[in-house]
Amino acid sequence: MSDLVRFGVAMDRALLAAFDDRITARGYENRSEALRDLVRADLTKAAWQSGAAVAGTVTFVFAKKSRAEVSRVLDAAPAGLTVSMVEVSLDDTRALGVLVLRGNAGELSGLAGRLSGARGVFAAELAIGCVDDRSAELSPSEGS
């Protein structure tokens, strides 16, 4: 049996039209899916800001000649923070790195910041998801 709850939302007509345009462009089948994603994103952000346990990725582009500097930053990270790393060659001089991380939000954010500031790193982006005890509340609904 589904645990879905229906509720109504009142919204300004122009705001709703803009929302509909946005969710259509993003490929949502209905407003409910889009609204659930917005709520999950907000709850994840709140958990992140409170220092909850999170998992995430840092995607970064770096100069291959700076691999030692990237390694130095990663070696200084707290033990157990990095779950996995993938490195893909983009061309003769640049590579794409993807780190899979698990820890508290501050640790992930700190590592992403240090990596972003490392010599030879052109760009770094952190994406996170909450994995604390509330993760069941954030999981996608079945049969939506």
Largest sheet: 4 strands, antiparallel
Q: Strand-and-helix sequence, N→C? A: HHEHEEHEH
What is the name of the CATH architecture of the largest domain?
2-Layer Sandwich
Task: Tell me the name of the CATH homologous superfamily of the largest domain.
Answer: ACT-like. Chain A, domain 2
| Number of DSSP helical runs | 5
Global outline = elongated
CATH class of the largest domain: Alpha Beta
Uncertain runs: 135-144
The side-by-side strand order for the widest beta sheet comes to: 2-3-1-4
Briefly note the CATH topology name of the largest domain: Alpha-Beta Plaits
Distance between the termini: 13 Å
Question: Can you tag this structure with a few keywords?
Answer:
144 residues; alpha+beta; Alpha-Beta Plaits; four-stranded antiparallel β-sheet; 40% helix; disordered C terminus
Question: What features would you describe in this structure?
Answer:
With 144 residues, the protein is α+β, with helices and mostly antiparallel strands. It folds into 2 domains: 37 residues; 78 residues, 2-Layer Sandwich (Alpha-Beta Plaits). Helix content is 40%, strand content 28%. It is built from 5 helices and 4 strands. The chain has a 4-stranded antiparallel sheet. It is elongated, with a radius of gyration of 19 Å. The C terminus is likely disordered.
